[in-house]
C-alpha cells in the first residue's frame, strides 16, 4: 500500500500532470489544504482520498449523505469538502485497505472553525476510541493509522498557543496502538523533521508531501 500523504503546503508541481510521477494507491490529507487540491490529486491518480480538516479549513460538521445527496439540517446542501473524499474526523473509516481513526483540528486559539480546547479534544478522542473498540469487536480489525492535524503535545509541536499539540493523543495512541500517527500543522521551514516513536507507533510530520509505504 503506497500512499501520497499531504498537509498544509500546496506543492504546485503536484497540481499538474506531474503528479503522475508519484503513483500511489491512496491520497491522505492531514489538513489545511484546499479541498480542490485533494480532489485533483485523487482524481488524477484515480485513487481514494481520506482526510481530516485543519484549523484553516471550512467547517464540515453537520453534513450527511442520503440517497446520493449531501444533506445538512435535513435539506440538500453542497458539501464543501473534496468530491469523493472520505472525512475521517471523529470517525473510524476503512479506505484503500487501511483502517483510519481521525481527529482533525488544532488547539483553540481564536473563534475559527475546527479548533478545540484540550478538554474538548479529549472528549472527542474518547468517543473515537470507543468506536474503534466496537469496530474491532465486530470484525477483529485494529486501527492502522491515526490521522490528525495537530501532533501530540511535546512530540514535535511548538510552544506558541496555535501550534501546541494535544495532550489526549498520547492516551489515544496507547489505546489504539496504530502503526502510524500522521499529522500536519507544524511547518518545518526547511529544517529536518525526524520521526518520533510512542510505544510502537511512529509519529510523522507530513507537511508538504510524503510518499509512504503503509503496509
UniProtKB/TrEMBL annotation:
InterPro entries: Calcineurin-like_PHP (IPR004843), Metallo-depent_PP-like (IPR029052), UPF0046_metallophosphoest (IPR051693). It comes from the Bacteria. Residues 22-188 form the Calcineurin-like phosphoesterase domain. Coiled coil: none annotated. This is Metallophosphoesterase. It comes from Amycolatopsis oliviviridis.
Amino acid at each position: 500500500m503506497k500512499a501520497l500523504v499531504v498537509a498544509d503546503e500546496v506543492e504546485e508541481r503536484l497540481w499538474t500532470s506531474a503528479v503522475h510521477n508519484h503513483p500511489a494507491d491512496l491520497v491522505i490529507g492531514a489538513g489545511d489544504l484546499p479541498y480542490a487540491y485533494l480532489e485533483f490529486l485523487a482524481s488524477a491518480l484515480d485513487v481514494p482520498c481520506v482526510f481530516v480538516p485543519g484549523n484553516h479549513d471550512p467547517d464540515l460538521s453537520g453534513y450527511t449523505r442520503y440517497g446520493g445527496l449531501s444533506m445538512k439540517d435535513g435539506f440538500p446542501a453542497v458539501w464543501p469538502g473534496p468530491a469523493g473524499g472520505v472525512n475521517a474526523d471523529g470517525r473510524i473509516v476503512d479506505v484503500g485497505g487501511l483502517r483510519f481513526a481521525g481527529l482533525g483540528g488544532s488547539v483553540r486559539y481564536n473563534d475559527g472553525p475546527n479548533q478545540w480546547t484540550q478538554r474538548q479534544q479529549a472528549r472527542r478522542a474518547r468517543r473515537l476510541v470507543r468506536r474503534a473498540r466496537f469496530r474491532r469487536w465486530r470484525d477483529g480489525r485494529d486501527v492502522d493509522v491515526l490521522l490528525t492535524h495537530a501532533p501530540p503535545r511535546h512530540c514535535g509541536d511548538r510552544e506558541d498557543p496555535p501550534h501546541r499539540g494535544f495532550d489526549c493523543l498520547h492516551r489515544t495512541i496507547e489505546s489504539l496502538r496504530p502503526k502510524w500517527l500522521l499529522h500536519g500543522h507544524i511547518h518545518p521551514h526547511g529544517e529536518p523533521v525526524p520521526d518520533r516513536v510512542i510505544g510502537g507507533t511512529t509519529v510523522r510530520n507530513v507537511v508538504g508531501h510524503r510518499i509512504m509505504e503503509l503496509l
